[in-house]
Structures are given as C-alpha cells and as structure tokens.
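Researcher: Sequence recovery benchmark, item below. Answer with residues only.
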C-alpha cells in the first residue's frame, strides 16, 4: 500500500492529510480554489511537520463511510473532491480558532480612509454587492468572502477573489444564481478592483440587507444584535449545518470551549461601531454608508 502525506496550511496553521491506497497519490486535491475562497488562502506542503494526521483517507475501502473520534477524521471509499474540500475547510477552521484566529463570513474594503467590513450575519444578503459598489466609488479590497483576524481584530489575511467561479463535484448548488447575473442587475459593468496592501484593523462593521420590498433604513445596532449577527459569521465555517454526502453529515467539530472562546472574542470585537443598512440596491446601501461616514467625520 502506498501512503501519500501532505499538509495544507492557512495563516500558518497546518492540517495533515494522509491518503493510503494501492496507487500512489500525488496530491489530495486537484483544485484548491474553494479552499482559497473560503479560508482566505492556503498553502500546500509535502514536507510535513505534524506527527499525526488530522484526516486519513482510504479510497480503496468498500462502501462510503466516515469516522471521527474527536481528534482525527477517517474516510473510507470514494469521495468527491468537493466533499473533501468542505471537510478540509471545517477541519482547518477549527484548528485556526484553537490557534486564536477568527474567521468571519464577510467582505471588507478600505473606503474613505476607513477599514469597513460587510458581514454576512444570519441572512447573508448584500455583502458582495455592497463591496462592489464601495469599490466602484474608489474603495480597495481587503477581503471578499472571508476575513481572518487575530484576537485584537487586526486582519491577518483575506480572500481576494470576488466570486467563486467553479464548484467541484459534491458542492453543486442549483439555487446559487450565476454571480454575473447579480452584477448585471445592479451595475452596467463591474469596476476594476484594487487590492488594499496596507495593515488593516477593522474600524466599522456594516450588516447590509439588499431588499427592495421595504423602505431604506440605516441605524446603529444594539450590543446584543451585534454579537448575535457576528456569532453567525464565525459559526459558518465549522459546518454544523452541512451534509457532506447522502447520509453523512459533517462531523461535530465544534465544542463548548470553542463556542465560549468565540463569544468572548465577539463581546470585545463588537465594541467598535456597528450599523445595519437596508436598501433596494447596493447604491442605496453605500449612499447610507456615506451619510454615516460624514457624521463620523463631523
């Protein structure tokens, strides 16, 4: 039997993957776009540093099943690449949380001298389109899909692809519309995106809500709703709601200690200004943001 070992690391946090098979594997994943999109950038190493595997896969085993003992996930049988990608995202996210890093389902821009996050929150309605409009008005991208911060709220890394162009087998979603359709609905053409290269500590957090059924609304969020919506952002990566394959849910990777750790971090993080903005389109949302910034600037 051949054994292939590699490590996949995000923000310097490594995850070891072993593949034990009759044939020699050269790599676990052929396409790492989904991992880069969801984890803000990964690196792959064949020179491994961890003594034990976090994930071991036996692709030649009969059937398709999974075991998890609280430390290691073991896969048996044939798994689609997209299914393994999703599992790797959650396994790496868990290790990143343990290392004191925090993953936000959010985009961020440097706009009018401020580092501004558009969080997904509970409904995830508008973070990408709001970012595109802010960039159209001169903003620069800090992150697109995922923001990784340290305990102080300093941005450690961020994803840079505005859209996920391709989903691997096992992650297909018919309910996800073509992203270019959303751009065409609100913009004559997307702007030229500029990447912000400077250090970034988030100054302001916006919960956007693009909804044309209600009147525009902008207001500062109360302490509890700030924490509630942010908790949703941070829980997204552990995949408790994800079905990896028919009959095979994501293993329970979260625990009470990690949940309390995230809640304590959020309590401090949400002391910065937080606003909810609702508008029929991203232009209205950023108009409201401009008014907020005007008031902040005095």
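Model:
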């Amino acid at each position: 039997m051949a054994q292939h070992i590699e490590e996949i690391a995000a923000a310097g946090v490594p995850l070891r993957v072993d593949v034990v098979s009759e044939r020699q594997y050269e790599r676990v994943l052929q396409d790492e776009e989904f991992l880069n999109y969801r984890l803000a950038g990964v690196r792959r190493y064949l020179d491994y540093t961890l003594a034990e595997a976090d994930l071991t896969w036996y692709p030649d085993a009969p059937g398709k099943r999974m075991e998890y003992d609280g430390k290691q996930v073991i896969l048996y049988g044939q798994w689609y690449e997209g299914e393994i990608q999703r599992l790797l995202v959650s396994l790496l996210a868990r290790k990143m949380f343990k290392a004191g890093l925090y993953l936000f389902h959010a985009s961020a821009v440097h706009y009018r001298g401020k580092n501004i996050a558009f969080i997904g929150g509970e409904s995830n309605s508008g973070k990408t389109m709001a970012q595109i409009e802010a960039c159209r008005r001169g903003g620069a991208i800090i992150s697109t899909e995922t923001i990784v911060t340290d305990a102080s709220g300093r941005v450690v890394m961020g994803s840079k692809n505005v859209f996920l162009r391709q989903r691997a087998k096992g992650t297909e979603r018919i309910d996800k519309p073509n992203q270019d359709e959303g751009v065409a609905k609100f913009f004559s053409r997307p702007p030229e995106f500029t990447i912000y290269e400077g250090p970034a500590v988030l100054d302001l957090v916006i919960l956007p809500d693009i909804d044309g059924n209600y009147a525009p609304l902008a207001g500062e969020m109360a302490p509890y709703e700030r924490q509630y919506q942010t908790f949703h952002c941070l829980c997204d990566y552990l995949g408790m709601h994800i079905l990896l394959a028919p009959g095979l849910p994501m293993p329970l990777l979260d625990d009470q200690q990690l949940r309390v750790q995230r809640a304590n971090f959020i309590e401090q993080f949400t002391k910065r200004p937080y606003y909810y903005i609702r508008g029929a389109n991203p232009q209205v949302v950023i108009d409201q943001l401009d008014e907020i910034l005007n008031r902040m600037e005095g």
